[in-house]
């Protein structure tokens, strides 16, 4: 097991810790069967919610403008409490500590991953915030549109980029076309304990929840029922959000009204089934997923196959006959955010670029890697854009 010590929760801890179980974890890695591809239905995730969520703000300072973005995220101690209260993860012996369903074992352990068993999805990592910074800059420049797109976040964990995008959709006018958001993480427990709660919080903190909150407020003021008190939607402040049947129903209604199709998938990258998810994507995002060199082939294969190929486009020119023009830019956006080097596990951006240069997709196409965002002070980090079949 490895300790990165670069997650948001443990930002003040600079020590790199490898505990006494690391040799066993690494030695047994080849014996651990990879989690197979599986979909977790939204109804299952709604049923897995506790009666209340405790959340705190994540503050993202934009690199170009120094403006700030606030997003609500479920508190790690709250996820820990749920794991304890539901008995999901109290290991009875050493072998049970490596059970992928033992969420509490990972919440309590001084480690951030067990290769092939737990991949760090319960914590928030800096590079996911970097993706929000870069996506916001693209939006401000008019170079990024999310409506009507198919979006995949690989290794989503606390899903900070996806919650940002979802909040933006819920904060805009309703669209006349579907936006598809798919979230993938290795562990079921990460999707249940942090990913989906954060998605629900993104809705609650948006204007889309106003109708529900107004209805509850009116009922409370009139004394019609004993509904719990819902706090104002302020992502910049800690809050405790009651979870009720009515709230869940309102969330699902908003998904339909805003034409958002959201799905959740667990399992290893090499088992991800694009046929079952509906095919390729317009936007593919991943952060903090290149820390282990031996996992790069499966990640690259998924990135290669998940991205839409370059396409012919019809320019809007009413004065001339419509014609097809081959785009010189990819018709998809594929972003990989990562630290330059991961202490203790050997991965980093150099190894990733080398792996990309040595790889080909199923059509023999080579990828191009371009650094589009970087931070060179403190823990050095980058966002890389990948493209295939660019003329």
TrEMBL record:
One of its GO terms (molecular function) is protein-L-histidine N-tele-methyltransferase activity. Keywords: Cytoplasm, Methyltransferase, Nucleus, S-adenosyl-L-methionine, Transferase. One of its GO terms (biological process) is methylation. Residues 215-225 have a biased composition (Polar residues). It comes from the Eukaryota. Residues 215-235 are annotated as: Disordered. InterPro entries: Methyltransf_16, SAM-dependent_MTases_sf. It is an enzyme of class 2 (transferase). It is found in: Cytoplasm; Nucleus. Its EC number is 2.1.1.85. GO terms for cellular component: cytoplasm; nucleus. Gene3D superfamilies: Vaccinia Virus protein VP39 (3.40.50.150). Belongs to the methyltransferase superfamily. METTL18 family. This is protein-histidine N-methyltransferase.
């Amino acid at each position: 097991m490895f300790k990165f010590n670069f997650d948001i929760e443990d930002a003040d801890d600079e020590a790199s810790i490898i505990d006494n179980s690391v040799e066993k974890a690494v030695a047994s890695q080849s014996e651990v069967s990879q989690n197979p591809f599986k979909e977790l239905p939204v109804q299952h995730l709604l049923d897995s919610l506790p009666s209340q969520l405790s959340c705190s703000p994540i503050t993202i300072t934009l690199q170009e403008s120094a403006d700030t973005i606030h997003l609500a995220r479920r508190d790690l101690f709250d996820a820990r409490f749920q794991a304890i209260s539901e008995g999901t993860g109290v290991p009875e012996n050493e072998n049970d500590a490596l059970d992928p369903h033992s969420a509490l074992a990972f919440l309590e352990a001084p480690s951030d991953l067990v290769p092939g068993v737990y991949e760090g999805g319960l914590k928030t990592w800096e590079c996911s915030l970097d993706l929000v910074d870069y996506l916001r800059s693209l939006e401000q420049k008019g170079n990024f549109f999310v409506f009507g797109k198919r979006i995949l976040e690989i290794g989503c964990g606390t899903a900070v980029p996806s919650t940002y995008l979802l909040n933006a959709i819920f904060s805009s006018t309703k669209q006349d076309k579907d936006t598809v958001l798919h979230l993938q993480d290795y562990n079921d427990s990460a999707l249940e304990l942090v990913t989906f709660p954060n998605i629900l919080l993104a809705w609650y903190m948006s204007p889309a929840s106003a109708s529900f909150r107004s209805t509850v407020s009116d009922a409370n003021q009139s004394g019609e029922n004993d509904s719990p008190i819902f706090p104002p939607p302020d992502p910049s402040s800690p809050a405790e959000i009651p979870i009720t049947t009515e709230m869940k129903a309102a969330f699902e209604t908003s998904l339909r009204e805003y034409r958002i199709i959201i799905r959740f998938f667990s399992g290893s990258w090499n088992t991800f089934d694009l046929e079952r998810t509906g095919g390729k994507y317009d936007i593919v995002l991943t952060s903090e997923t290149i820390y282990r060199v031996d996992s790069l082939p499966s990640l690259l294969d998924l990135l290669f196959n998940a991205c839409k190929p370059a396409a012919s486009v019809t320019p809007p020119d009413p004065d001339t006959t419509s014609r097809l023009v081959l785009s010189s830019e990819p018709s998809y956006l594929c972003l990989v955010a990562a630290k330059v080097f991961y202490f203790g596990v050997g991965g980093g951006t150099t190894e990733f670029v080398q792996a990309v240069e040595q790889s080909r997709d199923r059509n023999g196409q080579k990828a191009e890697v371009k650094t589009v965002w970087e931070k060179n002070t403190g823990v050095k980090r980058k966002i890389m854009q990948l493209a295939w079949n660019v003329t």
